[in-house]
Amino acid sequence: MLDTSKLHIHYKNSGSNKKPKIEKYTYDDFDFYMWDYQEQTKIKHEVIEEYLFVWATKLGSANNIIYYDGFSGCGAYYNSTDNELNYGSPIIAKQQFSKARRDSKSTFYFNEKQNCNIDNLKKVFMHAGISSNNVNYIQGDFETNIIHFLETLEKNPTPTFFMIDPYGINVSFKTIEKIMNIPKTEVFFNFMYNFPRRFTTKSSVETNLTNLFGTEKWMNYKDYKLEAKENALKELYREQLKTCSDYVYQYRMCFPNDKRTYYYLFHATNNREGCSIMKDAFAKINFGNVEFLGPNQPRPEQLNIIDFNQEKIKSLKLLIWEDYKNQTIEYSKIVDKYLDSTIYLERHIREAIKSMNKEFLDIQHITSKTTVKEGDIINFYSTQKVPEINSQMSLF
Ligand SMILES: C[S@@+](CC[C@H](N)C(=O)[O-])C[C@H]1O[C@@H](n2cnc3c(N)ncnc32)[C@H](O)[C@@H]1O
């Protein structure tokens, strides 16, 4: 807990009569500044914390691994709810790789445009007592600097996690595509939907938007109404990512005090397990949900997580039955179909299939008899087999 008498708030010089915004905090005992911590940033950090530990553990067991942060920030946040110092993405990554005992196999690249943020980040590292071994600080524009990094990576593909977390829409789809075309890479990209939402009717940013989407198709949706426009633009970006990445899932993040979308966190990976683990990580820290709903966020005391999961499995069973009735298919193909296109987690899919066994389908087990696994074959019946009284109602 910080001592609030030592804390100083610095406001942005907005020059208007709007409510002043906090630029940063300083604290008498620290030689660095901190940014204001908002709820959605906290969730973003908790998700990468959870995910990077697993990612480093798994991928670093047989390989060298790399973490590349394109927009590193200043490294520190003041959390006014808990009155505490929280760390930014570079420090979280370094801590998780150490916790996974992968320090000796990892290399970190922290890119940041502002010199003052890099200086601050270095001080925060010192304060946290984390070694700067294998850390490279790069000052400058992400789009420019990444080109050199990718040229080297292409020659020696190494599992690399790219954290791309800009404030605006200055990351081109071409860059993301270039990254994803190198084997063993994955991207966690903050797609600042707040910008396309506001600007699609202004011509001055048309070039930026075309670069962001990697196509001019976004123009087709300029005149759509709010919700339809958001869906169309999100789907367009997802479609673009799917051209270079096998699995793409997007986590909707609302403003903390407003139910409108602030940004989408897009996770692009060629590894099904990676997609599944990221979804689990998000759901774990977000009451089972794969979106952050701001003021509509469920409160823990209102939730019965068991009922909530059962409801999901019920609706998923209905969907599976509609899609696969009378077909024979490998279990992993069913997971592939739903994992990055629906809200369901892999364990929901497994539970749904298991609970439909013998009534709607047969499972041809290949390895384990007690669960459903990759390689298992699912034979769906053409009609429900055990028509017990009220069973339709009880199942769906
Ligand atoms: C949202 S913050 C990053 C927060 C950080 N990822 C975290 O979670 O703690 C975005 C950062 O990008 C930096 N930035 C802005 N434009 C940039 C650019 N073109 N290239 C690299 N960094 C940039 C800003 O100075 C800011 O520090």
Instruction: Give the biggest sheet.
Output: 8 strands, mixed
CATH architecture of the largest domain: 3-Layer(aba) Sandwich
CATH topology name of the largest domain, in short, is: Rossmann fold
Number of strands: 16
Strand order of the largest sheet: 8-7-4-9-10-12-11-13
Helix content: 25-40%
Measure the end-to-end span. Answer: 49 Å
Q: What are the distinct ligands in this entry?
A: S-adenosylmethionine
Strand fraction equals 15-25%
Helix tally equals 13
User: In total, how many domains does the architecture comprise?
Assistant: 2
Large-scale geometry: globular
| SSE pattern | EEEHEEEHEHEHEHEHHHEEHEHEHHEEH
Rg from Cα = 23 Å
Instruction: List low-pLDDT spans.
Output: none
Structural class, from helix and strand content? alpha/beta
CATH class of the largest domain: Alpha Beta
- Residue-averaged pLDDT: 92
